[in-house]
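tokens incoming
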């Protein structure tokens, strides 16, 4: 595949993470085993996933604050048991949103974190986003990680600073990433949050691609942090994150970024 990035590709920073966003979510329902299987088939090693707590304190994969938009159910994940949620249909929503995908996914249910680990184990590296503010979520997530012996295969991320502090108190050696978003009403600049992440002993920060600048990348690196991009909407966003020197990005179509990196590598020969 040749991607339209011109004759002189920007260099890829080192290290660089190609992270399949909620799995290969452009081609299969997000946060489902189908999406993570496909991400692996497309060559991704790193995957991003969202976790929340069910009514019976199981850790399940789901992104949204409520079920309303993407399933035929309503309410929060916390309002339903794991058994009920595993029977929820997220595939029909995906089929409607992605008519260009030939495979149909109607009837695909939600999956527990344990189901993903049981299937893919050490084949992948997991960027696990603590999606809600439930105080018990970090400990419950760590319990599942430990059950499968995957502490060296995970990084925990969140928009909730308190959740990352809970992770740090439970297991200071685990890598952690603070996701930064101005639209969530946070006070302070990206540089302020970078410094706060350093003070808390975090490992990375994540910034929306369109807001990310080379100066922010340099500021993070001076403080010993990796910095990666999220909210990659198109190839231009992808190229921008590379150009400013991000250490990676979450992306719905990982094979395009893999091809872009391969193109750059071949250009050096």
């Amino acid at each position: 595949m040749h991607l339209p990035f011109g004759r002189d590709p920007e260099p890829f920073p080192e290290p660089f993470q190609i992270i399949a966003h909620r799995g290969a979510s452009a081609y299969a329902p997000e946060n489902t085993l189908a999406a993570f299987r496909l991400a692996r088939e497309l060559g991704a090693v790193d995957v991003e996933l969202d976790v929340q707590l069910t009514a019976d304190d199981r850790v399940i994969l789901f992104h949204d604050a409520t079920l309303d938009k993407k399933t035929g159910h309503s309410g929060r994940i916390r309002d339903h048991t794991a058994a009920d949620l595993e029977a929820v249909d997220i595939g029909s929503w995906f089929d409607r949103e992605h008519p260009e995908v030939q495979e149909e996914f109607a009837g695909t249910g939600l999956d527990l974190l344990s189901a993903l680990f049981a299937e893919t184990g050490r084949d992948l590296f997991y960027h696990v986003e603590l999606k809600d503010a439930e105080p018990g979520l970090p400990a419950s997530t760590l319990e599942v990680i430990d059950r499968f012996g995957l502490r060296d295969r995970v990084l925990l991320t969140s928009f909730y600073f308190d959740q990352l502090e809970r992770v740090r108190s439970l297991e200071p050696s685990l890598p952690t990433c603070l996701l930064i978003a101005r639209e969530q009403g946070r006070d302070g600049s990206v540089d302020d949050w970078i410094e706060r992440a350093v003070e808390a002993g975090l490992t990375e920060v994540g910034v929306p691609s369109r807001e990310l600048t080379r100066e922010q990348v340099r500021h993070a690196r001076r403080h010993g942090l990796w910095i990666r991009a999220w909210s990659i909407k198109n190839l231009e966003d992808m190229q921008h994150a590379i150009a400013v020197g991000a250490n990676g990005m979450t992306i719905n179509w990982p094979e395009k970024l893999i091809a872009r990196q391969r193109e750059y590598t071949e250009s050096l020969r």
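note: The CA atoms of residues 130 and 158 lie 5 Å apart.
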